[in-house]
Amino acid sequence: MKVLLLIDEKLSSKNQCEALAEAISNKTPIIIKYIYLKNKILDYLPSIIIYYYLHLSSFFTKTNEGFDLIISCGRKTAAFNLIKKKSSTINIHILDPYILRNRFDQIIVPEHDQEKLKTLPNITFTKGTLTKIKKKRFYTREKKNICCLIGGSGKSSKIIVSNILKLVNDMNNLSKKNYIVTYFFSRRTPLKVKSYISNNKNPCINFYPYKNQNPYYEFLSKSDCFFVTEDSVGMISDILATGKPMYLVEVLKVKSKIKKFSKALIKQGFARKYNNRIKEWSYKPLNESQRVANLIINSYFN
Q1: What does the pLDDT look like over 254-276, one tens digit per residue?
Q2: Which pLDDT tens digit goes with each residue over 10-24?
């Protein structure tokens, strides 16, 4: 199967496209080609204008490549997906394409966005985002590992120092006990928040990225439990794939749909609020990437 991945500048978009492609490759051999859309001008144009701009440009670009499957993620790539699609091509878009939704074979959307899209027949909802499943083995340690994941500010949320005061104090207290604590920052974590954690954490606590090191996926496998700010749907989705305990850290300025997502996770037993005591529980690890991949293969390639 020949698969085209359409990627914008966001690493999260690339990760979701690759997660789905890798899950598909677990079921059938694939050949992947990437096209990166890095035209900054398109960031400022409405989606429908991008579509017509790319449509006009396609008349001057000759290509004989035929793909069995196109996977895209992000607003700009949605328009390009439609341009590259041929009659025999199945096209999948991750997240809301905002344009011509009925012209995609499947649109993959987190369930907290379902209010505006639930009436469409070509929508598949996921719990969180699509993630890569990476399993690693580690030596057993006497101390348990806590991974503390800090999101950041963007269109959907804003994190400030006051949001993480209790968290930092809790992590310092746990690090004095039988726990190894490690912080991970996202690309969106504000500098003030990073600086506060760096200046107020116990010396034994590490944080990443540090210089060129970012063993994020290793710690997903290595850690025994997680603390994560509720704004980061991507990080939460990665944790859901581990089946390990997750404590959600409240963020005051976050979109209502993200709040609903957090409340649903707690209600369904995937996450809890921290009440000064680490508890052990588990749930069946989610593999939404493989579930969606199986749906695509069974629906279009069997």
Answers
A1: 999 999 999 999 999 999 999 99
A2: 889 999 999 999 999
Rounded to whole angstroms, how far apart are CA atoms 130 and 286? 10
The closest of 127, 122, 98, 96 to 111, measured between CA atoms, is 127
Sign of CA dihedral 153, 155, 156, 162: positive
Q: What is the C-alpha separation between 172 and 186, in angstroms, rounded?
A: 20
Q: Tell me which H or E stretch contains 3.
A: strand 2-7
Structure tokens at 19: 């997660």
Q: How confident is the model at residue 38 (pLDDT cuts 50, 70, 90)?
A: confident
The single-letter DSSP state of residue 97 is -
Region of 166 (left: φ > 0; alpha: ψ -120 to 50; beta: rest) is alpha
**Across 50-65, average pLDDT:** 61
Gap between the Cα atoms of 292 and 277, Å rounded: 36
pLDDT for 190-216, tens place per residue?
Answer: 999 999 999 999 999 999 999 889 999
Q: What does the alpha-carbon distance between residue 302 and residue 16 come to, in Å, rounded to a whole number?
A: 24
